[in-house]
Amino acid sequence: MWYKPGQTKDFVATLKRINAEAAKLVTGLPRSTSGAAAEVETNLRPTHLRQAHRLHNAATCLLSAPQEYPLHQKFLEAAALTFPRRQGRATHVTPLDQLAHAFPDLRNNDGHLVVYETIQLVDSSPPWDEFEPLETSIAESKDDAAQKDDHDQLIASLEPKDVVAYNDGRSHRHGARWHRPRHEDAPTRPTRSRNRRIVICVDNQAAIRVVNSTGPGPGHAQRIEIRCLYLELKEKLELTSIKLQWVPGHVEIDGNELADEAAKEATKATDDESIKQGLEIERPNTIPASRTALRQHFKTRISQGWAPEWKNGKTGAQRRKLDDSPPGPSDFKLYHGLPRRAPSLLAQLRTRRSPLAHDLFRRRLHPTGLCGCGAAETLEHVVLSCDQYEHQRRALRRGMKKEDLPPDDIQLYISNGAAS
Q: Domain coordinates of the chain in residue numbers?
């Protein structure tokens, strides 16, 4: 069965029931438990959201595939079509057509597909080709990297013909500046000379870590381009080494501040024609979009869409009264590290389907629903006020290290990892 977002309702309903039953089996919840509540406890997103997430991953995979990949061109052709294709004739919409038009976030404001990075399915370098990794340096912490004295020592260790470059890139701002040690700070470009080094100070750790990766993945096209530039620079300029150094931003290092100013000037130049003249500016819409970034953005949207669905749902009201926080990984983390039987009991308590007398009475499985002390045996009564469990209650508070917890707030107990 092909899933079509917003259309295959019967298929989604069938999967939804299976999804709910699986969540109940995993947590040990009774069959009468709300399926939506069981999904929240297991952090298992609703079926239509999970299917949309999988389809979005498939679309981004086709967009980032190489040109020679068979479905890449077919996907682009499907994305360029406008339905109906021919007036007055029946139009067969294929699953690929549906996929190409399902996600607006894969298009620009003008309706065209975004320029996407290309991820090679295999490594372009043969295994017998000796790989020469770039020299990189990343401090253990930001405080260590921000030591101005250490950076000054790095600058002092360079020869007059060596070059230090700083870059600043974030969001829609990109800037760079060359700095020659012991010379004027005026921008300059490296020239051909023997026994020279280039140190490039970058404010992004991830960008430094991936440059030496040889396997396919996000940023693969950029890694290939960086490697080609690296080999070209070493050959043409006869450099001794090229080093990538992590320098965090906004730590009062002169070169970084200059790069930040250059980024601001470039941002102004995109709007001011008088400044734009004489500058070569790469506009943000010409920079290939990152597959990882688009997927992460869509995953965030999926999580944000789950919250109102859960809040306004027709089922799971008892669970929402107990804990009104939006669904997410925080609920599932409550069960980490618990003994084997404890997660099932905790899930039953949080969904009001526990073996307590009052919960059993609501399901007509207990004659009175009363505690041994004569009061209704509810979760609030057992955890907060019953004299029979005073010793256990004190031990629980000591374990939470909060002796002054409000005695009437059950959510602080039932939604706290230490209490679990």
A: 1-118+288-318, 135-283, 319-414
